[in-house]
């Protein structure tokens, strides 16, 4: 029995081994088949198919697997880099809506109304963003704004304008030709007391249809197009407000216009003073709307206070930065100092009605010879100005260098003065002096002595003729740049024996002095228009307020030339008049023309797209404000 059991056990073991071997043969056959399949397909297709890749790991060592993972990572990074470079090289930054900008202005707003804004730079700045005119300024001259097109008659007496059809007021009403006619009717109404009254005196306007208006002039007036840059008022808002009450209306501080920005809010302090004024983007603007959503203004009494606010980052720009404040700006790296060309000149104006000495044209020319313009421009203005010798600026219509001017020449000035009988003499200053005595009970009954006349010699000799010293007084505004120029003139003229006294006044006080022509010499600047028309500044009828002729010049020849130029539409012909005008001004020497300054406009670098280079008035720095932007995005080129 035991033998049978042993045989049975051996048979079982044999069967198990046979079964195990058969199983191994099956597995070997399966793997050989797969291997053959993989190899055959790989040879056939050169690259494994996706369903074959799952078997690769069975044939790779650990090191090979790591190498493949690293190579795959490098491949992915390379592909990503190529895609990024492809996008970057074929796309660009473009402006994106959003952001806000805050600017500091000197002074406070009163009339944000185009009929009155020209008298105040702050009003004009804000008004230029809220209102639109038929025409507007650009770097290349005048272009249409509200107007779609215009025509001028051959006799230069009729100007016909076609208005754009897609213009809406900020309150949603549509603009039409009646708004245009109403605005100019109010300007011509004396009761409105608009400073623009004289610009349109004698002109009539008529609305021909909903989109057409016609201006008719009494006489040809070449600069008339420039007058049409004035903003237009909404008739439906102002028609029920009498002309005499226009300056009292709340719409002067809560304006409704058609410009790229509209009124949002204002903030007053407890004294009723406006501290900030906020505008928001006009999304329905008839041209391309602005990118920057909000423009805010904060108001300061002085440039010093404005610069401090800029340094403290309470504002992001200032309307204008005088040169003497440049070094006080501490965050220069965050600012762009935009240098703009302004049609303005600074001159010394002679009022010889108030000074017998200045009636002699030879004395006026001598003072010109004693004025070192180059030193003033280089040392005081840091060379940020252009020396001039004429009221017609370089690159303006009719400008010529073929005029007589009086270069800096101290020796010539001294010799000429001596020839005219002006001899150097000791200048004696007489002043009153009272001897102070100690006050005691014993001296209370003492007789008080009369003031004594004390004579003091001026440290420099002054020229004298017919018992009269060559002594003059120069009036200027109380600002650092003007004072520095005045003191430099004082030193220069002192060299030839002229005693120059300086009277510096606040901006408010000097306006009164100018209106009354209460000065001998005036150091002051005048802003011209786009058209170089000198009539308002040099015609004999403009020597009294509100005229802008700041000298005593009265010349029939000059008057005739200026009157004639206004009637000439051909630029070449008008230029001849202006050339002759400059020659006569040089002969008369009613002023010493010093320089044409640059206008420095500091602005935070977050503002991009500022490209203005020429301005007519300071408010023109906003001419291209719809192109300014803060945020950006990338678009395919």
Describe the secondary-structure layout:
Elements: H1 2-45, H2 50-53, H3 62-89, E1 91-96, E2 100-106, H4 121-130, E3 135-138, E4 141-144, E5 147-152, E6 158-163, H5 177-187, E7 204-209, E8 212-216, H6 224-227, H7 235-238, E9 261-268, E10 274-281, E11 294-300, H8 303-311, E12 335-341, E13 344-350, H9 361-369, H10 373-380, E14 385-387, H11 410-419, E15 423-425, E16 428-433, E17 452-457, E18 462-465, E19 468-469, E20 471-477, H12 480-494, E21 499-505, H13 507-516, E22 521-527, H14 535-538, H15 556-566, H16 571-588, E23 591-604, E24 631-636
Parallel strand pairs: 2-11, 20-21, 20-22
Antiparallel strand pairs: 1-24, 3-4, 5-6, 6-8, 7-8, 9-10, 10-11, 12-23, 13-22, 13-23, 14-23, 15-18, 16-17, 18-19
Question: Any overview of this molecule?
Answer:
By secondary structure, the chain is of the alpha+beta class. It contains 16 helices and 24 strands. The chain folds into 3 domains: 39-89; 100-316 and 606-636, Periplasmic binding protein-like II (D-Maltodextrin-Binding Protein, domain 2, 3-Layer(aba) Sandwich); 344-426 and 454-598, Dipeptide-binding Protein, domain 3, CATH 3.10.105. 31% of the residues lie in helices and 23% in strands. β20 (471-477), α12 (480-494) and β21 (499-505) form a beta-alpha-beta unit. α9 packs antiparallel against α11 (410-419) and α15 runs antiparallel to α16 (571-588).
């Amino acid at each position: 029995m035991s033998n049978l059991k042993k045989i049975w056990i051996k048979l079982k073991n044999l069967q198990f081994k046979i079964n195990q071997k058969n199983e191994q043969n099956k597995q070997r056959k399966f793997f050989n088949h797969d291997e053959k399949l993989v190899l055959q397909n790989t040879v056939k297709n050169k690259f494994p198919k996706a369903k074959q890749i799952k078997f690769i790991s069975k044939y790779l060592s650990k090191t090979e697997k790591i190498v493949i993972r690293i190579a795959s990572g490098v491949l992915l990074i390379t592909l990503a880099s190529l895609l990024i470079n492809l996008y970057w090289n074929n796309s660009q930054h473009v402006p994106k809506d959003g952001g806000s900008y805050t600017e500091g202005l000197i002074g406070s707003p009163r009339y944000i109304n185009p009929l009155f804004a020209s008298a105040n730079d702050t009003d004009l700045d804000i008004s230029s963003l809220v209102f639109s005119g038929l025409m507007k300024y650009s770097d290349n001259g005048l272009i249409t704004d509200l107007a779609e097109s215009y025509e001028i008659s051959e006799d230069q007496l009729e100007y016909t304008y076609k208005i754009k059809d897609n213009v809406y007021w900020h309150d949603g009403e549509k603009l039409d030709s009646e708004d245009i006619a109403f605005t100019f009717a109010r300007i011509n109404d004396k009761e409105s007391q608009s400073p623009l009254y004289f610009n349109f005196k004698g002109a009539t306007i008529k609305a021909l249809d909903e989109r057409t208006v016609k201006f008719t002039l009494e006489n040809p007036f070449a600069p008339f197009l420039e007058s049409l840059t004035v903003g237009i008022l909404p008739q439906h808002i102002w028609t029920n407000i009498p002309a005499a009450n226009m300056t009292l209306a709340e719409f002067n501080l809560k304006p409704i216009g058609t410009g790229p920005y509209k009124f949002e809010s204002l903030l007053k302090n407890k004294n009723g003073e406006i501290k900030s004024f906020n505008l928001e983007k006009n999304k329905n603007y008839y041209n391309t709307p602005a990118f920057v959503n909000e423009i805010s203004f904060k108001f300061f009494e002085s440039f010093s206070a404005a610069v401090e606010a800029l340094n403290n980052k309470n504002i992001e720009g200032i309307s204008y930065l005088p040169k003497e404040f440049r070094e006080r700006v501490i965050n220069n790296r965050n600012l762009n100092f935009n240098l703009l060309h302004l049609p303005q000149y600074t001159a010394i104006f002679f009022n010889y009605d108030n000074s017998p000495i200045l009636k002699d044209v030879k004395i006026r020319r001598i003072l010109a010879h004693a004025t070192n313009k180059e030193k003033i421009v280089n040392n005081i203005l840091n060379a940020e100005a252009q020396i001039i010798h004429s009221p017609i600026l370089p690159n303006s219509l009719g400008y010529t260098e073929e005029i007589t001017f009086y270069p800096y020449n101290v020796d010539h000035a001294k010799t000429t003065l001596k020839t005219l009988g002006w001899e150097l003499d000791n200048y004696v200053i007489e002043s009153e002096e009272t001897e102070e005595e100690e006050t005691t009970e014993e001296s209370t009954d003492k007789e008080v002595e009369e003031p004594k006349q004390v004579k003091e010699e001026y440290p420099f000799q002054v020229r004298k003729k017919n018992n009269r010293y060559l002594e003059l007084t120069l009036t200027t505004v109380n600002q650092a740049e003007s004072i520095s120029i005045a003191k430099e003139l004082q030193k220069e003229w002192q060299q030839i024996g002229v005693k120059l006294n300086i009277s510096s006044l606040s901006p408010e006080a000097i306006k009164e002095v100018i209106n009354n022509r209460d000065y001998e010499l005036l150091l002051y600047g005048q802003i011209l228009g786009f058209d170089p028309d000198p009539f308002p500044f040099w015609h004999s009828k403009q020597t009294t307020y509100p005229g802008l002729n700041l000298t005593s010049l009265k010349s029939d020849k000059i008057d005739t030339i200026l009157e004639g130029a206004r009637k000439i539409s051909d630029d070449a012909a008008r230029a001849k008049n202006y050339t002759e005008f400059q020659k006569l001004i040089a002969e008369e020497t009613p002023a010493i023309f010093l320089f044409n300054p640059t206008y420095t406009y500091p602005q935070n670098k977050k503002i991009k797209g500022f490209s203005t280079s020429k301005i007519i008035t300071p408010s023109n720095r906003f001419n291209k404000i719809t192109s300014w932007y803060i945020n950006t995005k990338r678009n395919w080129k």
